[in-house]
Every structure is written in structure tokens, then in C-alpha cells.
Amino acid sequence: MPARGNSPSTMAAGAATDRTMLRLLKISNLAIVDEIEVEFKEGFNVLTGETGAGKSILIGALDLALGGRIPTDVVRTGEAEARIETLFEIPPGIPLPEAVDLDSSSGGELVLARRISDTGKSKCFINGNLVAPSLLKQVGWTLVSIFGQHEHHVLMNPEEHLEIVDRFGALWDRRLEVGRAYADWKNAEKQLAALKQTLESLKEQAQERSAVIKELADAQIKVHEDETLAKEKEKLSKAVQIREKSYEAYHSLYGRSGSILAELSEIRKMLDYLASADPDLAPLRESLSDAIYRIEDVAFELRSTAENATSDPHRLELIEERLNLLRRLQKKHKRDLAGLLELKDALEQESEHIENVAAEVKKAEKALELARQSYFDLASRLSAARKDTAEALSRAVEKELSELAMPHAKFKVSFKAAETAKPSAVGVDSAEFHLSANPGEQFRPLARIASGGELSRIMLALKALEVDRKGAPTVIFDEVDAGIGGFTALAVGTRLARVAKKQQVLCVTHLHQIAALADHHISVKKSLHKGRTALAAAALDHQGRIDELARMIGASPDSPDVRSHILALMKRPQ
């Protein structure tokens, strides 16, 4: 379908209706289909044809147009792209997602389409507008329900039975609520387990952590302490040399005859004389005087240094011990002094963290109990609702079966005993369908005793009930008549015709008893065209229906008895 595809107006077929329905299906280059258009009408539509004629290809194409999963190798051999288009008539007042470009107040035509490339990629369209696959699927599921030919296998799997009960009882929201409560419960379990593991790990390390904290606390470490001590150690180690050199320098400057200051004092006397003789030389005398004063300060400082430079072997020993301790701690913990202080703070915080984690464990235990109790409260209420629903479902199925040639059938939903129930995301229930097909027979699990025909009718009964409750405008039954025939087939056809009074029904069938009751009959055939297999579908007129029904019986339409039988079926009140 192009960006706008075939517009709704160009696909239109038939008069407008006050019921939502599928009006047209158009397929190009899908499987063995070259080009085909199939028109559907209000009421009961049937598709018939020989086995392998391609009837299910049409249903599969419709499923694809409604957003279904794409199978492999779906594009016709030699083609680049397959196209499927559907036309729905939508009366006013039908709610659709806001993203759909259709005024619900006035209704109109809705075209759902899909283009699938030979690489398996697809594009989805609604009324020619490119949309997300999820929107196409959402709209498709709103308009159509498809019940496939293999769905009766669901009845053979007891794990599926509880879902059927929940759908029948409109319990899905409660089921989801229980699922969320179950997830909360399990998450609470995980959180508690993680906290307990953390607490256990902290406790296992507590003794070692306490020892390290004590070791670092006793050390009373100060940042850069090692640098200060190293300088002091170096100073103490050179105390004798400092004293000797300081005295020697002092005496050279000041403390003996002929010292530098003595010589400078004599020179200053000379400058005093010169300055008195020539005032211009006075600045020289002042400069020398300043130098003498500064040298005197240096000399006195050197004397003080010499007097204070005392050797202290005990202090030197203490410094060495302290430095050894600091070096040992740094090597042990692979950190500098600042890092050791940070380690001590971190370990102290971890010690405090044990108490916090222990408190969190207690909170988590309470939260777990609340989550568990919430789950079981919700699951218990859901379980009670399921048991009420199961009784209603049993009565409804028995009523349906009585109209499907199983007048004595008894149906019930059995639940496992509460003490054997295992909590799960769907609750504490485990359900299984049981059947007593004939008077005097005990109830037995459906999966063990039901025949193919019984399974088909039970599934049809369940689907008919689901259709009544869900109310999808168009309902498709793809060969749901497996294993039945005769009067039973007529009963099934009558039930399908009754569904068609309220909703549009499309039914793929091999049974003439069902096809005879249709309002609109479509024949599907394979043919050869230019050396390739192709699919054709044609709406049958009155004579065409008689011919097709005769083929389905395996008789000649020219036989008066066959014709009489067919006409009687076609005129049968529904």
C-alpha cells in the first residue's frame, strides 16, 4: 500500500451499515496469492474449499493486517513486497484510540494495511498514515477476534484453564493486581536477603575492623607529621656540627681580636675622619655603619644557635621509633598519613553502619511480612471470586453444550486443595476442567477423556461465551469444527449463526451443515496462471452455493435428493 495506499473511497464496497464490520480484504504477493480481493458482508460469512485450497492463507493475511507476527518466507517468490489491506466500516460512536485519524462522532471507513518486504521488515498504515505496529495491533484487536483451528489444544493443557476462568469472570485486573503484589513480595524477599548478606559480611569483618581502628587511634596520627619529624631528626643528628660551625663563624665575625667586626670598626674610624674633612663622604660612613650593625646581628644569632644546638639522644631515639611506626602503618595499609586518617574515619563509619543495617534488616522484615500478607489477602479474594466464576462458567458451558448436541454433559472447574496450593504471580489457585460427557459417568480431567469432537464443541462453547462478553465486532473461527459431523455439525452451525445475529462472523469450515447456514458464502480455490499456482476467492450466488455444498457432501448437485437436502438446510430456521 503506498503512503496513502488505496484510499478508503477506492476500496469501498457495499452499502453502509450501522454495525462495525470488516468489509473488504485485499492481498498482493503473499504466499501463493498474486492479487485477490475478498468482500465480506454483515452476519454469517463462510469460506469453503478443498483441503489445502488456501482458506487459512486469507485468515493469516487478515491477522497480519491487524498487527500479527510475521512468519518467515511470507512474500510470494520473486516479489519484493507483500501488501495486505483491510477496509472496516465504522458507525458513529465507536471508540477508537486518539491516534487514529477518524472522527468517532461521525464514523466512516477505516483502512488497516501492512506492507512486508522480502527481508521480513514491515510498515503499518491506518487510513494511509504510517503508524507504529503496536497501534495497528491495538486497533486490530479492538475490531477483530480470531479463534484458530488449533486452539482446542489449550483445553489439553490445565495450566491454561485458570486463564479461561479469569477472562470469563472479568478478573483480569484482579489477576494483574495479584501479580504486582507477588512481585512486591518477591522483591521484598530479595531486598531482605541482600541486607542480611551485607550485615553478615559487616559482622564477619567487625573484629578485624575494630583492631585496625584501635591501631590507628592509638597511633594518634597527624597529617605531615612524618615530614616534621624527619626534619627534626636531621637537625638533632647534626647538632654537634651545627654548634661547632656556629661558634667558629661567631668568633670570626665578633668574638676575638682581629675579627671581621673589629677590622670594620677601625675602617669606620677612618671614614669618620674623612667625613669630617669632606662632608660628601658622610654617606660612605653611614653605609658601613649599617653593615656593621647587620653583621653584629648575624654574629649574635650564630652565638645563640651554638648555645642552643644541644645533642638529645633520647629525643632522637623517640623520633626514630615514631617514624618507624608511621612507616610500618603506611606500608601495611598502603596509604600515606592522610590516607590512614581517611581509613580510620571510613572504618568508624562502617562500624556505625552495622547498627544502621541491622535497623534496616528489621524494617525489611516488617516490609516483607506486609508484602506477603498483602499478596495472600489479594490472592484469597481472587480465589473466592474464581470459585464463584467457576460455578457460573460451568453452568454457562453446560447450557452451550446442550445446544451443541451434548445435552447430558456436565462441566466443572476443579481447584487444588489450599494446602497444596503454590503461590505464584497468578495467585494460589490451580484449576483444571473436568467433564462428565454422559449420564452416570464420573467427572474426569478433560484432557484425559474428551474426544476431538467434544474438545471442539467445548472450545466453541467457551469462545462463544467469550465473544458474548468481549463483544469484538468481527469474530473469525478458523476450522473450529474439527472432529464433528452430522447433527452435531448442524448444532455448531446454528450456534455460530446465532453469534452472527449480534456480530459479524467469518468461519472457515469443511462441513456443509455449517456452510449451509451462512448469510454469505465464499469459495476459495487454487488455480494455475501462467505456470504458477494462484489463489482465487469468489462470492457464490444461490446456485453456486448449492454446487459448493454438494461438493462438500461429495455428491452431485443434480441429484434431486441432494438438492432437496441442501435446500432444506439452507432454509433451516436459526
* CATH architecture group name of the domain at 8-149 and 451-539: 3-Layer(aba) Sandwich
Radius of gyration: 49 Å
Query: Into which percentage range does the β-strand content fall?
Result: 15-25%
Mean pLDDT: 86
**How many helices?**
18
Shape: elongated
How many angstroms does the end-to-end distance come to?
A: 40 Å
Derived structural class: alpha/beta
Major β-sheet profile = 6 strands, antiparallel
Strand order of the largest sheet: 2-1-4-5-6-7
Oligomer: single chain
At the first level of CATH, the class of the domain at 8-149 and 451-539 is Alpha Beta
* CATH superfamily descriptor of the domain at 8-149 and 451-539: P-loop containing nucleotide triphosphate hydrolases
Q: Helical content, roughly?
A: 40-55%
Low-confidence sequence ranges? 1-15
User: Quick one: how many beta strands?
Assistant: 15
From the 3D structure, determine the CATH topology of the domain at 8-149 and 451-539: Rossmann fold
Protein name: DNA repair protein RecN
Keywords: ATP-binding, Coiled coil, DNA damage, DNA repair, Nucleotide-binding
GO cellular component, one term: bacterial nucleoid
Pfam families: SMC_N
